[in-house]
Write a structure and sequence with these properties.
Strand order of the largest sheet: 7-10-11-6-5-12-15
Order of helices and strands: HEEHEEEEEEEEEHHEEEEH
Structural class: mainly beta
Oligomer: single chain
Number of domains: 1
Number of strands: 15
């Protein structure tokens, strides 16, 4: 009997130890939340994430939340003159410290902050069969990213599946044929940092063939040139048709198709990869001037240096009596990587060089298996 009791106790201790080593993940992952339109969004889509505290901002965004301190976490990717980026709430922030708390910065009023005039310094809008890619150059200090920060990846998964930012939702009308009909983009990713960015949205169902594949989120240390190769150029604003890129990290060697897995950061910086990511062919490019495109932000000055207010929705479309968003311990814990690999902007694509030499400086709290 004593021997049996000891064995049972050891088994329980072993089970407890194993359980303690497995990070808790969100019981309802952000990428499994589906909303037919922005009007169907609750005040917060992830009000109580189980690992990192409460959602920082809110998802019901309208004219009453439209200001430069808005905590709106719903963004749009519609066209070259109508898209948003994720950025920190407060000035001089790093992406690695704020990835769970980013707010939307947009070129048109969507109840969020507006990207200041002059911040965008070249944008390429690529329409591929299975995704849309917006890539370009940015004065990142104007969207509160610290000068010199090489940034990292934001996506709807994250280490606990609550997303980075937690509760961040993306919509687009680019596939509907109507400026007022939106489709939720369940799969997306944004690399921002090093004064560059690449934002990709991958629709589910027609026309999207493989949203999780094209918007893969497990190569966060390799930046734009591997995840979203492009030919964006400084001071050039253009819309192009594009062929699909090769699936990120998928390559053929000796006749065998291989899916690359990035090594853990504990092994140091990634200095080489066994494949070359190529920029897909583009065509039918139409150039624009920034002054003609970004009329809604022409009078918007640089990012505010005042503490952000918890602007909450009111009026039509809002939830009366909803609690204001509170800031939990939403600091990020998966690796932040360079959006580009060089601290200087390159003229032949945002993030033209694929392997970040600065990656690896941010600790990893959980296995990359939980970023899938």
């Amino acid at each position: 009997m004593a021997s049996y009791a000891l064995s049972a106790l050891l088994a329980l201790a072993s089970s407890t130890l194993v359980t303690a080593q497995v990070p808790t993940i969100e019981p309802t992952p952000l990428a499994s939340l589906n909303f037919a339109s922005p009007a169907d969004l609750p005040y917060q889509v992830e009000p109580n994430p189980v690992v990192r505290g409460s959602q920082f901002g809110f998802n019901q965004c309208n004219s009453t939340t439209q200001n430069q301190q808005s905590l709106c976490q719903t963004m749009y990717v519609n066209s070259i003159d109508d898209f948003c980026l994720w950025g920190p709430d407060k000035p001089n922030s790093t992406i690695s410290d704020t990835e769970g708390e980013e707010v939307a910065w947009c070129t048109k009023p969507h109840g969020a902050r507006l990207i200041p005039n002059g911040a965008l310094q070249g944008v390429q809008f690529l329409k591929a069969p299975d995704y849309i890619l917006v890539a370009g150059f940015i004065d990142q200090t104007q969207v509160n990213i610290q000068d010199g920060d090489f940034g990292g990846e934001l996506d709807p998964h994250g280490q606990d599946l609550a997303g980075n930012p937690m509760g961040g939702i993306v919509f687009s009308n680019a596939y509907s044929g109507s400026n007022t009909t939106y489709q939720q983009m369940v799969e997306w990713n944004l690399f921002i940092g090093g004064n560059q960015f690449c934002l990709k949205i991958c629709p589910t169902g027609a026309p999207g063939n493989n949203p999780a594949g094209y918007c893969r989120n497990t190569l966060d240390r390799l930046g734009c040139s591997v995840n979203s190769p492009n030919n964006a150029q400084k001071d050039v604003y253009e819309v192009c048709d594009s062929a699909d890129m090769d699936l990120p990290g998928v390559y053929v060697s000796n006749g065998q198709t291989i899916t690359y897995t990035q090594p853990p950061e504990s092994l140091g910086a990634i200095t080489s990869i066994p494949f070359t990511a190529t920029v897909p062919a583009s065509s039918n490019c139409t150039p624009f001037s920034s002054a003609a495109l970004y009329t809604d932000i022409a009078s918007v000055s640089g990012a505010s240096t005042t503490p952000a207010a918890s602007a909450t929705p009111s009026g039509s479309g809002s939830v009366s009596g909803s609690a204001k968003p509170t800031s939990g311990s939403a600091t990020g814990s998966h690796s932040a990587s360079a959006a580009g690999s060089s601290s200087t902007s390159t003229p032949n694509g945002a993030g033209a060089f694929g392997v970040s030499l600065v990656a690896g400086v941010i600790g990893v709290a959980f296995s990359v298996a939980f970023l899938a």
